[in-house]
Design brief:
Shape: globular
Strand content: 5-15%
Structural class: alpha/beta
Bound molecules: D-mannonic acid
CATH class of the largest domain: Alpha Beta
Oligomer: single chain
Distance between the termini: 56 Å
Number of domains: 2
Radius of gyration: 23 Å
Number of strands: 13
Helix content: 40-55%
Number of helices: 23
CATH architecture of the largest domain: 3-Layer(aba) Sandwich
Length: 502
């Protein structure tokens, strides 16, 4: 049997031809189901996370009202439109670990709208009575959130564009679309949809509410009040390490499972989602598929803190330190005992003390699981993926931990070393003099400041949007950062690490 192109017609043949068990959707799709979820920002993470939970609900629990309509707002989403469009929106997910690979075909994405093709179709979909939840994975920069003032970056040209009534038919940003979608619902006497952020940000639901209501206030204060009073924006902690799909992943899918898929996903077996039970227009029974639904917002905040500070914080040193040391993949970095010890000691001796206790969660076990997950070689998690967009990461995953450590709990020098590794990474040259690409929405400003500052971190720390004022005024912090930057610039990361490892 040759390789079969993934599509509805070939599905059963794909399943019977597989030499190892392969799960395929056996539920109805297309017009037979309702699309209760509209998801903006269909990338690898969404397809490895929310879409997997929804697939399980449809496959094993008879859910038919919450299929997903994917939406792409950005020009680069054209690739996803074409890939999914060519295969009836089916795709394969391969879970890899040392134990082997398990492949499953997902059918929960039922259709896809590419906004540049037809913006009205997206607004109409948001306003449709069958839409109950609008979920988001739009990355930190998609929120136009000022970390320092906690306000909407209303002066941003894209936000300005969407605020101009002349552009009502052609919004660009998520908030432009959500605003018009909400307006349609109100006109029809419907409830607002729940806006469910699945982005990796502390307080993602609260930020989403704040940004959307702020946007709406600048257009129509009355609608803003309606959204604020009636809308629900659950906070959530989301977790699954999902590398970018590589050409080799497609080749091995064809070889191992006889499937030709334009854009499969390779990920780890682990997945977790803790979400606040706060939905204004109904929700599927997520708890049936292992989602932790919690009543108390404080609990979600605690879970988020654990995850962002331990997982994403550790990822930061692995990625920036590892890239500077010349590595390509996360597991390779973890194979170097200097790095794996550093990661462990940073978690245990610096981060842990800043974390709240959560009933039923053993932080040491959580840290051990993280080390195993980081060391999972078959997923081939690329450092550049994690390095990208550091302005959305370091200020969230490292700086608040430093602030708490320095003023409340104790040691913080490894955290500073991590931040310093990012500052040095901005130059785009590794410790052996090889150049690499730096991807960041603030690239120009960062590089100008990094060059002007040299081993003095102050130039970068002066970016108030990212770093605020408090840390910059703390002498111990600035001294520790300066030492780390000097060491990395002079000796490179690998030679500096022994000073930070006991
Ligand atoms: C990574 C995350 O890009 C990053 O910063 O740390 O994408 C990470 O893989 C996920 O948060 C895991 O849930």
């Amino acid at each position: 049997m040759g390789v079969l192109k993934l599509n509805s017609k070939n599905l059963s043949q794909i399943s019977t031809a597989a030499s190892v068990p392969l799960e395929i959707p056996t539920y109805q799709r297309g017009d037979a189901v309702k699309e209760g979820i509209v998801h903006i920002g269909v990338g690898g993470f969404h397809r490895a996370h929310l879409a997997v939970y929804v697939n399980q609900l449809m496959q094993n629990h008879g859910v038919t009202d919450y299929a997903i309509c994917g939406v792409g707002l950005q020009p680069f989403d054209v690739g996803m439109r074409d890939a999914l469009g060519s295969q009836d929106h089916l795709y394969t997910i391969v879970e890899r670990s040392a134990k082997g690979s398990v492949a499953k075909v997902m059918g929960s994405i039922n259709s896809y709208l590419f906004a540049p093709d037809n913006r009205e179709a997206v607004i109409a979909k948001l306003g449709h009575p069958d839409t109950h939840i609008v979920s988001l994975t739009i990355t930190e920069s998609g929120y136009y959130y000022n970390e320092n003032t906690h306000e909407l970056q209303s002066e941003d040209p894209d936000i300005q564009h969407d605020l101009d009534p002349a552009n009502d038919k052609a919004p660009k940003t998520t908030f432009g679309f959500l605003y018009h979608g909400m307006a349609r619902r109100r006109e029809q006497g419907l409830n607002p949809f729940t806006v469910m952020s699945c982005d990796n940000m502390q307080g993602n639901g609260a930020i989403t509410r704040n940004m959307l209501v702020s946007f709406a206030r600048l257009r129509n204060p009355e609608l803003a009040e309606w959204i604020n009073t009636n809308g629900h924006f659950p906070n959530a902690m989301v977790d699954r390490i999902t590398p970018q799909t590589s050409a080799a992943d497609k080749v091995s899918l064809a070889k191992d499972f006889n499937i030709e898929d334009s854009w499969p996903i390779v990920t780890e077996p682990f997945m977790q989602w803790v979400i606040e039970d706060h939905f204004c227009d109904g929700r599927p029974p997520f708890e049936k598929v292992g989602v932790q639904i919690v009543k108390n917002v404080k609990n979600v905040e605690e879970f988020e803190k654990h995850k962002l500070r331990l997982l994403n914080g550790s990822h930061a040193i692995i990625a920036y330190g590892g890239q500077l040391a010349g590595y390509k993949y996360v597991h390779e970095v973890m194979e170097n005992p200097l790095f794996s010890k550093f990661v462990w000691q940073m978690m245990q001796e610096e981060v842990k003390a800043t974390l709240p206790e959560i009933a039923g969660v053993n932080i040491d076990e959580y840290c051990k699981t993280l080390v195993e997950r980081f060391s999972n070689p078959p997923i081939m998690d690329q450092l550049p993926r994690i390095c990208s967009n550091g302005t959305g990461k370091i200020p969230q995953f490292i700086m608040p931990t430093i602030a708490e450590a320095i003023w409340v709990t104790g040691p913080f020098r490894r955290l500073c070393f991590t931040a310093a590794a990012w500052f040095h990474y901005i130059h785009g040259v590794d410790d052996n003099g090889n150049k690499f690409e730096v991807v960041d929405p603030m690239l120009e400003e960062l590089q100008t400041r990094a060059r002007a500052g040299g081993t003095n971190p102050m130039e970068l720390l002066k970016i108030r949007n990212l770093f605020g004022d408090d840390l910059r005024n703390d002498k111990r912090f600035v001294e520790t950062m300066t030492t780390a930057l000097e060491e990395i610039s002079r000796d490179g990361v690998l030679k500096s690490l022994p000073k930070y490892v006991d």
